[in-house]
Write a structure and sequence with these properties.
By secondary structure, the chain is an alpha/beta fold. It is built from seven helices and five strands, in the order βαβαβαβααβαα.
Length: 237
C-alpha cells in the first residue's frame, strides 16, 4: 500500500516560476494543495488575477489572498513611484540588487506560509525562487532558504512538539534551473503559460511591457527552450 499523500502550500504569484512549482507539486502527488498569494500593495493587479486563474486551472483545495501593505515602506519600483528599469542586458541584472527588489518580501511571504501551514498541519511549502535567473535578489538564494527552514523548525509548535521525523520543509525545485529549463519542465507537465503573468510594468490592458527584467528573462527563456512564447506584449495583437 502506498503511503498517504502529503498536503502542501504553494506560494503563487501568477507567474511562470510559481506556476511551474505548482505543477511539480501536483506531479509529485502532494495532496491536497493550497495556494497562497499576496496583495502587498504592488502597483498593478494583473498578477493577482493571474494567480486566481492558475488556482482554478490546477483545482487547488483553497486559494487564499493575503492583504498586506508594503507600500508603507516603499523603496521598490514595485510598490513606490520609482521607474521600473527597462531594456537591460541579462548580465547587468545581477550586478547589484535591483530597484525592483521589495525589502524582505520572501521573508514576509514565507512567514505567512509558515503560520498557515501550522494551522493546517502542513509541513511542506513550495516557493519558486531561482538562484540562476534571479535578478540579483538576495532572498532567492539557497542560503536564505536553508536559514529560514532552520528557523521554522525551531519556532513553531508543530515542529517543537511534533514528531522529529516530520520537519517543516521548504521545497525549491527551480532553484538551480535556468529559465529555459524551467519552461521545458513546465511544458512537459502540461503547464499553459498563456495564463501566467510575469511583467513588472504591464499596460492598462494587462499586456506585458516586454522590456523589464522579468519580461526579458521570460522571453529569452522561451527562445532558449525552443517553446512558443504565448505572452501578450504591449504593441502587439
Amino acid at each position: 500500500m502506498s503511503p498517504p499523500a502529503s498536503p502542501a502550500i504553494i506560494l503563487t504569484s501568477g507567474g511562470l516560476d510559481s506556476t511551474t512549482c505548482l505543477a511539480i507539486a501536483q506531479a509529485d502527488e502532494f495532496d491536497p494543495i493550497y495556494s497562497l498569494t499576496f496583495d502587498y500593495g504592488q502597483r498593478h493587479r494583473q498578477e493577482l488575477a493571474a494567480a486566481e486563474v492558475v488556482a482554478r486551472e490546477f483545482n487547488v483545495a483553497e486559494h487564499r489572498v493575503i492583504t498586506i501593505d508594503l507600500r508603507q515602506f516603499g523603496k521598490s519600483a514595485l510598490t513606490a513611484s520609482i521607474d521600473v528599469p527597462k531594456d537591460r542586458a541579462e548580465g547587468d541584472m545581477t550586478g547589484e540588487i535591483p530597484v525592483t527588489y521589495v525589502p524582505a518580501r520572501n521573508t514576509i511571504f514565507l512567514s505567512y506560509a509558515l503560520a498557515w501551514a501550522e494551522v493546517l498541519g502542513v509541513r511542506d511549502v513550495f516557493i519558486g525562487v531561482n538562484a540562476v535567473d534571479y535578478s540579483g535578489y538576495p532572498d532567492c538564494r539557497p542560503e536564505f532558504i536553508e536559514a529560514f527552514e532552520k528557523m521554522a523548525n525551531l519556532a513553531t509548535k508543530m515542529t517543537v512538539e511534533g514528531e522529529a521525523n516530520q520537519p517543516f520543509r521548504i521545497h525549491t525545485p527551480l532553484i538551480h534551473l535556468t529559465k529555459a529549463q524551467i519552461i521545458k519542465k513546465g511544458t512537459a507537465l502540461g503547464v499553459d503559460y498563456a495564463i501566467t503573468h510575469s511583467c513588472y510594468d504591464p499596460d492598462s490592458q494587462g499586456k506585458a511591457c516586454g522590456r523589464c527584467d522579468s519580461c526579458i528573462l521570460r522571453r529569452n527563456g522561451f527562445v532558449e527552450a525552443g517553446v512558443r512564447d504565448p505572452t501578450r506584449y504591449a504593441g502587439y495583437c
